[in-house]
Amino acid sequence: MGKCYLACPCGVILLASLLQTGCSRSVAASKEPESARNVELVVYADDFALVHETRDVDLVKGKNRVGIQSVSTQLDQDSVVYSWPDAKNMRVASSTYELGTKDAGRLLQRYLGQPVDLVYRSDTGHEGDRQRGTLEVADPGNIVVRVGDRLVVNPSATIEAPADAGVVTIPQLSADVESPSSQKAKLGVSYLTRGLGWSADYTANLAADADKMSLECWATVTNKTGTVFPDAKLSFVAGSPNRAVSSHGDLKEQDSSGYTILQKSNMAATPASAGVNQDFNAPQRTGELYAYPYKATATIKPDQMNRVRMMGGDAVLVSRDYSIVLPSAEGYAYEPQQNGRISATLALAFRNSRDTGLGLPLPAGVLRVYEPGPSGSVRYIGAAQLSDTPTDAKVSATLTDVFDVYAQCKLSATKRVDKRTVARTFEVAVSNEKATSIELRLVQSFYGKWKVVSETSPSTRLDSNMAQWTVQVPAAGQLKLKYTVNLGY
After folding, report:
1. CA 437, CA 139: separation in Å to the nearest integer?
2. How big is the chain by its Cα radius of gyration, in Å?
3. Would you say 86 and 186 are in contact if contact means Cβ atoms under 8 Å apart?
4. C-alpha to C-alpha distance for 437 and 320, rounded to whole angstroms
């Protein structure tokens, strides 16, 4: 009889656990090595994934119970689907998700009312007296075993319990299978799980004094499922479909200490290279979303963040967009005493097209931008959040405030035109302390009915509430803009 060994007092300490699922029918176990599991992972954003595996099982004719270990500790039991890739007339009659145990105390409680052995050992560890009894109390620090007509309280002995009593120590799936004959078969198992998610991030390196940049998209997958997925085929889906949330999750035994601190490791350290989509196959439609299949397999270990390169381009055409948002013309924003500086902001603008070196659907993620420093090393200049971007769409990523480009503005005149209209004249002085001239956008919002009636530089009406002036500000110089707007109430 296989045994598991438990020691007490001083609490209940699990010394070793060799328990397997057992029943009165034939038991089939998946015993192939981890590398033979043929794992496929479809990972969505927001801590959600689809796991598909195939396991080799040995079946006898009639009823079998198949135990499937190394599954996610956060799987949704209601989502489990079984298949038989190379067998016919197979039927899964029922499926059970065994929650396992987190500590020796809970394990002992599952043996309440069952026979156990008390093994007394010498100081050198050699076995001495052995007594058979029935476990009647299994609380932490409070063990009671009935031995014959006596109750032994907190024995200073090792408790040995049978490993074939149907008690499971680690989470696993169990399926009752009906087979028409004795055979070896492949069992396919698919399930949805929490604890496995991914995110995209982008690294951009601007070329010195050029209108190009190198852009790489990386995927980071985080595994909190408590299990390893060896040599898995990976697909990352941009976005997350609606999903039903199982109410059974509250039944799972949680470790009070929570997860360990995540450790970073690289699944692939692929250097940047020319072209697009070096390490992933072309995006594939998955429902109304896009999936990005990784070309190689990777082992996804628990409590790790693994990062792989998805795609990239070395010569992405890009422009620097300098802009200043002026205070709204409404209210008291332009009182004469309010002449403070308004800093410009810098955004990078590019188009997601093949002409610019990209041309693939881009998943949402953080863009971090670097540029060359004086010594040749890179310097970080800012970051922005990109949304899901389809092919040929324009991207504008606001990175940072600009130290040496700013505006000072004032309301220089107000005149009543008629009962419902006021004319306001604004003066904006833009300073550029850079060594080169820049193109700058000045944007201002208005309210009600409005019309620009005079201006020193031409404006563009962006929409019903906003106008824009695009001006060229000389190096180490200043530009002044003056305009009058009729505002109707």
Report:
1. 78
2. 34
3. yes
4. 12
Would you tell me how many other CB atoms lie within 10 Å of the CB of residue 459? 16
Q: How far is CA 51 from the centre of its chain?
A: 15
* Residue whose C-alpha is closest to residue 347's, from 323, 370, 321: 321
Dihedral, CA atoms, 432, 438, 441, 442, nearest 10 degrees?
Answer: 20
Side-chain-facing half-sphere of 17: CA atoms under 13 Å: 18
Pair type for strands 319-325 and 342-351: antiparallel
| Residues 253, 101 contacting (CB under 8 angstroms) | yes
Domain residue ranges in the chain: 3-30+48-192, 319-352+393-488
User: Could you tell me the sign of the dihedral formed by the alpha carbons of 376, 377, 378, 379, in that order?
Assistant: negative
| Helix H or strand E encompassing 105 | helix 104-109
Residue position matching structure tokens 């810098």: 346
For the stretch 320-364, pLDDT in tens is 999 999 988 764 444 444 457 899 999 999 999 888 878 888 899
Residue pair 191/79 in contact by the 8 Å Cβ criterion: yes
- The CA distance from 295 to 267, in Å, is 12
Please, are residues 267 and 307 in contact by the beta-carbon 8 Å criterion? yes
Report, in this order, helix, strand and coil percent for the chain, each rounded to 5: 5, 55, 40
pLDDT, tens digit, for every residue of 357-399?
A: 788 888 999 999 999 888 878 899 999 999 988 889 999 999 9
CB 11 within 8 A of CB 143: no
Q: Whats the size of the chain, residue-wise? A: 489
Contact 487, 442 (CB under 8 A): no
- Rounded CA separation 306/240 (Å): 20
- β-pair partners for 261: none
- Measured in whole angstroms, how far is the alpha carbon of residue 369 from the centre of its chain? 21
Could you give the 3-state DSSP secondary structure of residue 298?
A: strand
DSSP-assigned letter for residue 362: B
Asked if residue 178 lies in contact with residue 63, where contact means CB atoms within 8 angstroms, the answer is yes
Give the bridge partners for 116, in sequence order: 133
Nearest C-alpha neighbor of 405 from the set 345, 465, 448? 345
CATH 3.40.630 fits 319-352+393-488, yes or no: no
Rounded to the nearest 10 degrees, how much is the dihedral formed by the CA atoms of 301, 305, 306, 311? 150
